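Supplementary Methods S3. Complex input for the copper (II) ion-bound model.
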Amino acid sequence: MHRREFLKSIFATTTLVSMADYSLFNPSYLWANQENMFTSSLPIPPLLEKDSNGLLQLAADYGESEFHEGVITKTMGYNGSFLGPTIRVKEGDMVGLNVHNKLQQVTTVHWHGLHVPAEWDGGPHQIIQPGDIWSPKFPIKQQAATLWYHPHAMGLTGEHVYQGLAGLFLIEDEISTTLPIPKQYGVDDIPLIIQDRRFFEDGSFAYVRSMHDVMHGVLGNYLLVNGVLQPTQFVSKGITRFRILNGSNSSIYRLRLSDPKGMSVIASDGGFLERPVAVTELIISAGERAEILVDFSHLAVGDKVHLLVDQYSGGSYEAIEFVVTNTTSEFNKIPEFLRDQQQLLAENATNTRFFSMETMSGRGRGMMGGGRLTINGKKMDMNRIDEKIILGSTEIWEIVNTSASMMKLPHSMHLHDVQFNILERNGKEPAPIEMGRKDTVLLWPDDRVKIIARFEDYTGIYMYHCHLLEHEDDGMMGQFEVVAKKPVQL
Ligand code: C2O
Ligand code: CU
Ligand code: CU
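Predicted complex, serialized as structure tokens:
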């Protein structure tokens, strides 16, 4: 079967089969159709400005949000009640931040996709105690990309992200600021943070983790874009750029436009592709990003285009409505070329490692005990280093989704510290949209993916894990330590 058809059939069959016993449809949850129906405009997260000392100030705190009219939901956010401001920096900048934990629990802030010293990575070792301020400082040593930030405390990541702690982290460079593509943040360069949530009938978030929720992820039956249900966004005739983050806990989304002309993917997790790739749909797993250009120029003023989102083993949504205005964008042509992307070459790798993402019913534990979500048969242990990597080396990681036949689950493998290239997916060259820089890669059941990465600049401890956050929190995570080459003993 052709791969695309195969993916389509995964979406189609799983939706039907799982409906019956799916905990998403638990009767105690608020269950209605998305009732907002394009009444609110798309909120744009504000750009975070430096203070008078040149520092960026972030505070994680509690808040209240109104997702359903007249119903208050308790949430968390950075500098606000839900989500956080967009941080925008330039390659070569030195970035200093103060992160204030105003929660009554520990948290961390991890810069997902950023290549930073291990001590400032914001992983489970960089805990911020309640009331404390953490002040990371790091240089931006990578090309333009759409990255993001979110908490990463052991066992609490899923809960904190679900409550609303997440924001975008954009890097610009010489190329991104000169390419003939839209680049006015919030005007023609629009962030779309897509997340699903489920609610109890009183309006509170239903973040509970049954065994089923741990295995399948906590999936919601309401779709939020930048924190609201079914927003509207006006677009000019011509080209608009969207920076899409799948900021959901565990959902895999298939995105399409109701207008069949489609979209062109211009960037993956870690930056621009060499050239735009025209697609009619885009599959994006939890933690991944994509930038797309959409050409609205053939439409008439007042025409409406919907972004359609199908959630793997969940529902289908009209996520956002674009309304074409009578203004004309300065861009009406999709460029042919974006930038040179030096692929890492397999022949430069000095080591190969093997990772098996496993769902097994462990002995004496079984599915009723939560099953066993492991990498190479191990659950995360903060006191164990799983892999040691020599600084400066290039390695191939071969990752397999080894699902037991009873429990076929997708996984989304993420590495800290590096942006990698995908060398192979199931023995074949990856699809063009997977040929760029990546930090997170989706593995359907039984998929086998080979990636290549260069571990440079920094030594220290970094994480690799499934980015389905309920899997991560259940221990589907490991640690690699980048170590300096041993000096030769004379
Ligand atoms: Cu986005 Cu280790 O995480
Ligand atoms: Cu990360
Ligand atoms: Cu997983």
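Helices lie at 3-19, 157-163, 211-216, 469-473. Residues 1-10, 12-22, 363-370 have pLDDT under 50 and may be disordered.
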